[in-house]
Each structure stands twice: as structure tokens, then as C-alpha cells.
Design brief:
Helices cover 40% and strands 14% of the residues. By secondary structure, the chain is an alpha/beta fold. A hairpin with a 2-residue loop joins strand 10 (224-226) and strand 11 (229-230). Helix 4 (64-74) crosses helix 5 (91-99). It binds pyridoxal-5'-phosphate (PLP).
Amino acid sequence: MSNGEFLLPANLMEAYLAHKEDIDAAVHRVLDSGWYIGGAEVTAFEEEFAAFLGVPDAVGAASGTDALELAMRTLDIGPGDIVATVSHTAVATVAAIELTGAVPVFVDIDPVTFTMCPECLQKTLEEDTENAIKAVIPVHLYGHPADMPAICELAAAHGAAVIEDCAQAHGAAIGDTKTGAWGAIGTFSFYPTKNLGALGDGGAIATTQPALAQKAKLLREYGWEERYISAVPGMNTRLDPIQAAILRVRLAGLSADNGLRRDIASAYTKAFAGTSLCLPTEADQAYHVYHQYVIRCDRRDELRGFLKEQNIGSLIHYPCPVHLQPAYAQRIPLPPGGLPNTEKVCQDILSLPIYPEMGTANTDRVIDAVRLWLAG
Ligand SMILES: Cc1ncc(COP(=O)(O)O)c(C=O)c1O
């Protein structure tokens, strides 16, 4: 087996080169238009993205973190409110809650799908006798949808809104309903490594309720109803038109790219079936878009080191749950039994390389290397 060039876990340059001509043309279209904030490209992307998701409205924002904050502010969540989410996520989910002045509480995850455990959410909601939990934010981590039918039912019974953190799940679905179309609002990041990635920062919210979209549009630009007149206190979080134009190119290929990710995932799953590795699974009705292919392995660090020797990069998403990070430790309420699944999985998870342009030769390289390690 050849060691070859270093294989990155995700390769942004290849993603650009795969669509270079169209992306360059899109960027020049914006440069030549003389319109550098908002405008036709942003509106066109919002419409195309909403159509892709099957919702009436999408509203661009400057990042996925901003999209989360914007979603909460749109739903009037702020100081004095509690928001239930998971600790096994990108820190942005929790940071955004605190940016609104609300307080996060953590719910444990299901160790198989790595997403919010509905039974744990139920306990958290039952303990909230004062009804202070105003929203629930499940995260569709790694591209696998959280159990939205159960989570939406529990939240509705408690009178809490559901905001889906879809930063890692563009195009994922349960049955015919895409992630982002289940809750009151779905939030997206277009950070370059995401399944739908810009070439810089970007984000959006999606909603099935046009009134919420209208309110979000007001809030994202200083609360302006008319220029220079703020009707409500707002933010500045605008999707850049150059990024919107690039995203329109990438959106046209998103379903095909997700298909390529699924092909790589299925090759890995076939190759590693029956080994000691714990492989990702897909819940009934779930359409996984494999933002990451995450295995569990009790000698994870050894495997990671071996892959590195073979010139293969891998990552850990995430090595430390949010509630144990210095900025948050001891500060955020935990459920009575703690977060045992959250604390366990971070010790043995490993994300193998996966990106649409990876190709069969690189997929085989990873498979051969992992098999070699397993045989050793
Ligand atoms: C689950 C999750 N939520 C939120 C974010 C925040 O997105 P951004 O980096 O665009 O602010 C990310 C991206 O890192 C993410 O993975």
C-alpha cells in the first residue's frame, strides 16, 4: 500500500477546484454588479435554499453562530429564559444561547446516533416545573438527524419552541421532511467544511412560518423597518453576496455531493463490518448526509497515530464536551445523573476522512490502512 500524499480529513481546495469555473464566474458577477451588501444574489440564494429544504422561507446570516442567535431572538428568547441543548456539539451552539442572555441546560445524547436523547429531554422537561425552558435545540450532529418526531412532541407538550441546529446536516431528512423543516426554525452554517460550504463565513435560518422570516429579516439588520429607523433593537448579521453567489453554485451540486459522501460511508461500513470498530448507523427513516463518518474504537488514539504514520489525517469531533471546557465547566446546570453518554463518547470517537471529491483510490487507502491496523 502506498503512503501517498497526506490525505486531509476534508479538502477545501479540491471542493473549490471541482467547481472553479462556475465559482469564479459567480464571484465576478457580484464584483461587476456593483452591489456588495444584500441584493439579488442573497435573495436568489435564500429562495433556492428554501426550495431545496421544502420550506417557504430562508433568511441569510453572517455565520451559523449568528443564525442560532438570530433564531432565538426571533422567538423572543433572552434573559431569564432557559434553553435545553446538548453538550456533545460544536461550542457555537452553547455560545449562541449565552449571547442572547438565556441560560443553557444540557441533555444527554443517544450514544448510537450521537444526538439528543428524547428520554433524557423528557426528564429535563419534567423537572422544569416553572416552565422556564422556552426552547429546545437538538443538533443534527455529523449529518444524522436527531429524533425530531419525539423531540417536537415533547417540546410542544411543554410549550417550548424547537430550533434545529442543522450546521452539519444540509440535506439530511427523516422520511420526506428535511432537517430545518421540523422545528419553528432551523439554523445553518456555511463554514467552508460544511456539506454546503461557502469560501468564507456564512449562515442562514429556515422556517415554515413566514411571520418568523419577516421578523428575522428585521432583526438581522439593526431592526430596520425602513433605512436608519430601527423599529426594534436588532443585530448586524448579513450573508455576504459573494458568498451567496458561491453558495448558489454549491447548492446546485449539494444532493450529488451528499450522494458521494454516502457512497464513501457505505464503502467504509462494508469494509469494517464485523470488526471491533463501532460504526455509524442510520435510524429508521433517517437520511444521513455524513458530514462526518465517526467510528468508535477503544484504542482510538493508537489508530489515529497509525493513520497519521500512513499519511492519513483524522479528527476528533469533539475531544471535550462543552460542559467540561474551561469557559463552561461548573457553570451550566447538568441533569441529576450527569451526562454519562456525552462524557463516554468523546473518549473513543474518531472521524475518518470524508469529502465528495475524495475518490475511490483515497477511500481504499483509508480502508486498507484501517484494516492493516486491525490485523496488527
Ligand atoms: C453544530 C454546529 N453548530 C453551530 C456551528 C457554528 O457555525 P459557524 O462556525 O458558521 O458560526 C457549527 C460550526 O462550526 C456547528 O458545527
